[in-house]
Q: What sequence folds into this?
């Protein structure tokens, strides 16, 4: 395990799947940590899993291994400006959780409910109108790509 630089107690949660904007063609790409079992949607940095994701773009067919540091430089696919806030999510499920929280729906049994406490307070405070939530729902449905 490569944990030499991490600060004790500063445990970070990594998503298994990350939706990204392909840096080569701008289309929807995905990074998958294939060391993580299917049923695990996120994992902590104390886990023995390797922090290497497989980057795949279905449009330009690029496929290669990426480290966490490289992923951080890429653009997330689920990202939108609302009320001077950049609302972003790691992936579709994470965005679904954010939308449900903004709509004040029950998220107890949601696979991403752990991330509820990490939702930016400003988002919860500022994003309340039906039209703003609709924009997030459109983003989730892939309708933002038509603009
Ligand atoms: Zn591409």
A:
């Amino acid at each position: 395990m490569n944990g030499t630089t991490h600060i004790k107690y500063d445990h970070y949660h990594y998503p298994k799947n990350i939706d990204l904007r392909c840096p080569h063609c701008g289309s929807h790409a995905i990074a998958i940590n294939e060391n993580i079992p299917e049923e695990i949607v996120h994992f902590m940095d104390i886990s023995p899993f390797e922090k290497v994701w497989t980057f795949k773009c279905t449009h330009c067919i690029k496929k290669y291994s990426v480290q966490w540091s490289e992923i951080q430089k890429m653009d997330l696919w689920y990202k939108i400006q609302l009320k001077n806030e950049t609302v972003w999510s790691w992936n579709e499920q994470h965005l679904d959780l954010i939308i449900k929280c903004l709509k004040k729906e029950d998220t107890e049994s949601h696979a991403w409910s752990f991330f509820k406490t990490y939702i930016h307070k400003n988002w919860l405070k500022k994003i309340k109108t039906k039209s703003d939530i609709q924009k997030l729902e459109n983003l989730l449905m892939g309708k933002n790509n038509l603009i």
Summary: Strands lie at 13-15, 17-21, 28-32, 42-44, 52-57, 63-67, 75-76, 78-82, 85-89. Confidence is low (pLDDT under 50) at residues 1-9. The radius of gyration is 16 Å.
